[in-house]
Amino acid sequence: MASAPRNSPRTVDTSPPLSPAPPLSPPVVGTAAAGGTPSPTGFTTGVFPAAEPAAGSSAGKASTAIRLLGILCNWSPFACFNAAAMAHLELPPEYSFMRVMCIGRINQALILRAFEYGADGVILLECRDEDCRYGPGPEVGHSNVDRVRRLLHLLGIGQSRLVEKSFQAHEKEELVRTLWEFAAQIKALGPNPAKPPQERRSA
Amino acid sequence: MKLGDPRVKQLVQENALALCIECGKCSASCPRMLTGKEYSPRILAHKLIAEPDSETYIENSVWECLTCGLCEERCPSGVEISQFILQMRTLLAGTKGLKGYRSHDGALHSWMRLMTAPGLKQNRLGWVGPELRVARTGKVAFFSGCAPYFDVFFTQIGVDTLAAARAAVRLLNFLDIVPVLLENERCCGHDLLWTGDRENFEALCRLNYQEFRAAGVEEVVVTCPECYQVLARFLPEVVPGSELKVTLLTDLLLREVSKGGVSFRPFVRRATYQDPCRLGRIPGGVETPRALLGSIPGLELKEMRNSGRSAVCCGNNAFINCDAYSKRVQVERLQEAKATRADLLVTACPKCMIHLTCAMRDPYRHGRLSLEVRDLATILADSIEWSRGDNAAEAVSR
Ligand code: SF4
Ligand code: SF4
């Protein structure tokens, strides 16, 4: 993925480009389900393949009971997050957030563990490659996301349950919109079908 | 865990710890101890029977053992250290939680636990190309275990664990066996078992058994010795009445070779062989791979100083507690391999391959330890052929 253009959409970006004025209502669930783009790894990105339907028949009520983890880098993404809170922008209630000094701190194990502990989706919110305070943080993030996505594909959990997206420090509306879009996409998919029994029991 | 606890007492008794005569043969063999780790099976045995207040020492020791079983090879009293360790870990994990530093921050254990989900719909067969003949149902299955997952996780160290899986299917196809490959088989659970996570281990056993049954499988062929031990020895404990036959691919091949008709094309290399611990401790586990390697014309097998039943572990087990001492075991093992002046290191376990390859890549060794590593199955698959009649008997008698 090193050859991908900087800050290329590697997330839920099947939605149309952002308009300058940010309407902050949740986007329609349908946006995330429109056509996927094949990634260099040969997997479909951005869209849960039709062959991997949401767990069971829990399309209706149960599909809203999802748990999401947002991992925020302390710098640009957290600045956006903070600014969004100051501006009283509403965030989807399904998220738990975790703030780390750099997205490069997050390894494959920590992402997988979120799924092991019952997450239905994980989003890494990082700085742009060129803005990293420490150097290779976001690049470490890209390679971890690539590899964990391949593991998620093997597990049948689906690659679209793990996304990353980078922000500049002033992009609070984009951050909020991304969070709503990701939440809508995971709601449409329903709960992660591969929850270990302990997590299913506690849910 | 108080030593007076009846459960601990029972384990001490069941595993013959009270028979220890403190000869110290175990500690003198233990790779963990010999590389300087503060751990000694002899002292562990002593404390268990004579020093009931050494709780901390005992609890820490339980997570240090590699469970390689070398001590048991040599103990004159039949003390079953590794079996004791396994049961103690299960007991401790159940009461005090898992201990022991998890290598790779526990990523492997996470995916193993994720596989306990009953509704899992994996995509694990992407490695099966059109050149392989495989089936969805049938009597004989090939179990690839975690190979597709290792392949993703360990790409950065250049270990190709799927090569062995492909080779195994090729060998079975050569013998006109079209094995069942299950899209939803799980990890065998070896690493969860040996880190004390009995609940999830048992869940994996049951799920695997269900998958086998649903596909009509009666016999499972494996290449990985850990999968073999789990499916053959531990799965029947979890699934009573399981009549699954578990066969090591090497045993199956040796049977075919000794029938005559099958031989190997020449493969001119000087090779050495790393005995996987889980293979070396079962009957035939030392001899069979050597008999097969010996059937390949041109392949010169040079034994390491410690080999066969005395072979030393690849330094880590169940992906816990990989540390500087593990590294030291690996470096010493690779130095032994290098001393044979072989240019090929053959092994029969994906974990040996992963751990030894990892150690070879140490930048401070400047490549002095590097050696081509290959799984036995890939070598056999590359040179197997139908013999032309005359040299079959000769190949076997060699
Ligand atoms: S080898 Fe056996 S008898 Fe000797 S000290 Fe070790 S456990 Fe005791
Ligand atoms: S099983 Fe191996 S690591 Fe454990 S005590 Fe025995 S020789 Fe040492």
- Strand numbers in spatial order across the main sheet of chain A: 4-3-5-6
Main sheet overview of chain A: 4 strands, parallel
Bound molecules: iron/sulfur cluster
**Total DSSP helices of chain B:** 20
Explain what you see.
The complex is a heterodimer of chains A (203) and B (398). With 203 residues, chain A is an alpha/beta fold. Chain A has a single domain (37-202), classed as Rossmann fold. Chain A is 31% helix and 14% strand. In chain A, the strands form 2 sheets. Chain A has a 4-stranded parallel sheet with strand order 4-3-5-6, sandwiched between helices. In chain A, helix 1 crosses helix 4. Chain B has 3 domains: 6-96, Alpha-helical ferredoxin (Fumarate Reductase Iron-sulfur Protein, Chain B, domain 2), CATH 1.10.1060; 103-255, no CATH class; 262-383, Rossmann fold (3-Layer(aba) Sandwich). Chain B has helices at 6-14, 25-29, 31-34, 41-50, 55-64, 70-74, 81-96, 107-114, 147-153, 161-174, 190-194, 198-214, 225-238, 249-259, 277-280, 287-294, 324-339, 350-360, 376-383, 392-397, and strands at residues 140-143, 219-222, 245-248, 262-264, 269-274, 299-301, 344-347, 372-375, 384-386. In chain B, the strands form 3 sheets. In chain B, strands 6-5-7-8 form a 4-stranded parallel sheet, with helices on both faces. A 3-stranded parallel sheet of chain B has the order 1-2-3, sandwiched between helices. In chain B, strands 4-9 form a two-stranded antiparallel ribbon. In chain B, helix 1 (6-14) runs antiparallel to helix 7. The longest helix of chain B has 17 residues, at 198-214. Chain B is globular, with a radius of gyration of 21 Å. The structure holds iron/sulfur cluster (2 copies).
